Amino acid sequence: MSHPILGFEKKHMFGILLFVHERGGCTRMELYEGVANNDRMPDKLAVLEEQGLIVQKEVPISRAMRIDMTEKGEKFVRLILEAENLLS
């Protein structure tokens, strides 16, 4: 049996979601500076976007990419934080 949540065990997946959530959205550069800057980050962002947890969109004029949480992503992060509170 496959458990979708296990895919989030990959390094930085929860960190990415928490970082974007805490800031109310961010640019890719801010995320890379705040969480990690490695070759796999675009793939991780693509997975989170495919799951419907974030959206990435180009910022007009600047060519920067903005990352925002979706409603589903916000709900998922609230559940993560609630689980964390249960453990503390």
Strand order of the largest sheet: 1-3-2
- Name given to the CATH architecture: Orthogonal Bundle
What share of the residues lie within helices?
40-55%
Residue ranges: pLDDT <50 for 5 or more in a row? none
What is the mean pLDDT?
A: 88
CATH topology: Arc Repressor Mutant, subunit A
Beta-strand level of the residues, as a percent range?
Answer: 5-15%
Shape: globular
DSSP summary, beta strand count: 3
Counting structural domains, the number is: 1
> Can you write the helix and strand succession as a string?
HEHHEEH
- Which structural class matches the secondary elements? alpha+beta
Task: Walk me through the structure.
The chain has 88 residues and is α+β, with helices and mostly antiparallel strands. The chain has one domain: Arc Repressor Mutant, subunit A (Orthogonal Bundle), CATH 1.10.10. 51% of the residues lie in helices and 14% in strands. Strands 1-3-2 form a three-stranded antiparallel β-sheet. Strand 2 and strand 3 form a beta hairpin. The longest helix has 17 residues, at 71-87. The chain is globular and about 45 Å long. The mean pLDDT is 88.
Features:
globular, 51% helix, alpha+beta, 4 helices, 88 residues, Arc Repressor Mutant, subunit A
Short description:
With 88 residues, the chain is of the alpha+beta class.
Write the layout of secondary structure elements.
Elements: H1 13-23, E1 26-27, H2 28-34, H3 41-50, E2 54-58, E3 65-69, H4 71-87
